[in-house]
Amino acid sequence: MKIPYQDIDPETLEQLIQFFVLREGTDYGEEERSLEEKVEDVRKQLQNGEAIIVYSELHESVNIVPATN
Prior knowledge:
Order of helices and strands: EHHEE
Low-confidence stretches: none
Largest sheet: 3 strands, antiparallel
């Protein structure tokens, strides 16, 4: 089930994005990026429709995935 990011409390959304970024693991880019930069990137992807928030009833979990999934 898709959950519009606008329907999530801003503080909860911030925590969800941080959890997602931290869970995704190591950054293998040429330059290391801060947590804040990564969180902002994910927030922009949600705002631009490049990523969506989904809830899995089966696993009772929330995740951020590319919008093309």
